[in-house]
Amino acid sequence: MMIKHFLIGALIAIGAATVTAQTSPAAASAAAIEAPDALVSRLAKEITDAVKTDKALAAGDAAKVAALIDTKIIPFVNFQRMTASSIGPAWRTATAEQQKRLQEEFKTLLIRTYAGAVKEIKDQTVAVKPLRLAADDTAVIVRSEVRGKGEPIQLDYRVGKLTDASGTAWKIYDINILGVWLVETYRGQFAQEINTNGVDGLIKLLTEKNKSTKK
């Protein structure tokens, strides 16, 4: 249940009705690439616009939501870093094929869980807090609040600068809901399975979970 609440909160934040963001002058001039807080704000608008104009998305159509997330959000997530951090020390000793399978199944798990949460997007708004970004920063935390009925919900993103064949960009690699980081929560769950059945056991568990979610 904890993981579901994490992802529902994160999806609400990335797809809420209104997002406000303020980037400090230092952040704006630190690099020509899109700033981390600007990235979060842009994703919010794109997801919001899509949900508002597509009744199937608003109703939580699993296939459509999964496709939206895969095209609009996943490209801006550093899945290798997120997966490696969630697996913990076992990632370094896993074979290249095991790492590939873990990343694939972990990605599928997150997409399918997000798809089940889209109907939670109502009238919430998100305030993205001003970000102080130095020119030499390679990892920052973008802080925000989800505002609606009741007390505001703390929602923060760990965002890191990644350089690969496609260039340099900021990408999300962890999410914090109410003071608890998503990666740490997964790491605790995955460690139990790895200690009992090894990396292959975790791959099997994730594969079975993803297959059952399809039904």
Characterization of this structure:
With 215 residues, the protein is of the alpha+beta class. It has one domain: Roll (Nuclear Transport Factor 2, Chain: A), CATH 3.10.450. It has 9 helices and 6 strands. Strands 1-2-3-4-5-6 form a 6-stranded mixed sheet. Helix 6 crosses helix 8 and helix 8 crosses helix 9.
Defining key terms:
single chain; 215 residues; alpha+beta; Nuclear Transport Factor 2, Chain: A; 6-stranded mixed sheet; 22% strand
Question: What does the secondary structure layout of this molecule look like, with pairings?
Answer:
Elements: H1 2-14, E1 18-23, H2 25-30, H3 36-53, H4 55-58, H5 62-72, H6 79-87, H7 90-93, H8 96-115, E2 125-131, E3 139-147, E4 153-164, E5 167-177, E6 180-181, H9 182-214
Helix pairs in contact: 5-8, 6-8, 6-9, 8-9
- Our Rg estimate from Cα atoms comes to 17 Å
- Count of discrete alpha- or pi-helical segments spanning 4 or more residues: 9
The separation of the N and C termini measures 19 Å
Query: Overall mean pLDDT score?
Result: 80
User: Unreliable segments (pLDDT under 50, ≥5 consecutive)?
Assistant: 1-8, 15-31
Concise overview:
With 215 residues, the chain is an alpha+beta fold. The chain has helices at 2-14, 25-30, 36-53, 55-58, 62-72, 79-87, 90-93, 96-115, 182-214, and strands at residues 18-23, 125-131, 139-147, 153-164, 167-177, 180-181. It has a single domain (2-214), classed as Nuclear Transport Factor 2, Chain: A.
